[in-house]
Amino acid sequence: MTGAEGSRDVTQFESWAATYDSSSLQKRYFHPIQGALLHHSASVAPNPSHVLDIGCGTGSLLRRARSAFPGSVLVGIDPAPSMLRAARARLCCPGPSGRRAVAAPRS
Fold it and tell me: Which of 101, 83, 82, 81 has its CA nearest to residue 92?
């Protein structure tokens, strides 16, 4: 991927941030994949200290990980600032353990 292609992709995701979670693709494709990933992850590492989501978007997987791994510190990174703002807004409340989920900007 060239710098121009990456920039174009980030711009596209920027425009989707407000409506990304309401897409029909979420329930049809992403939720089943996320569920399978979390199930497998729990079987391999049932109590991780941290969970990292690279390309976290609006934080959908992190929100589900907060329930699956209530004692974990959750960290998400994404190159699209609007996606990170959405993730931060949706992850603002502490999980059951009191640990906050964090969406960190890309350095």
Answer: 101
Cβ atoms of 73 and 99 closer than 8 Å: yes
- Alpha helix stretches (DSSP H) within the chain: 3-16, 24-25, 31-44, 60-68, 81-90
User: Which contacts (CB < 8 Å, 24+ apart) does range 95-100 have?
Assistant: 95/66, 95/67, 95/70, 96/66, 96/67, 96/70, 97/70, 97/71, 97/72, 99/71, 99/72, 99/73, 99/74
User: Using 50, 70 and 90 to split pLDDT, how confident is the model at 65?
Assistant: very high
Give the whole-angstrom CA distance, residue 75 versus residue 28. 25
Token pair 């964090």 in the structure block, residue: 102
- Report d(CA 23, CA 68) in Å as an integer: 23
Encoded tokens for 5:
């292609």
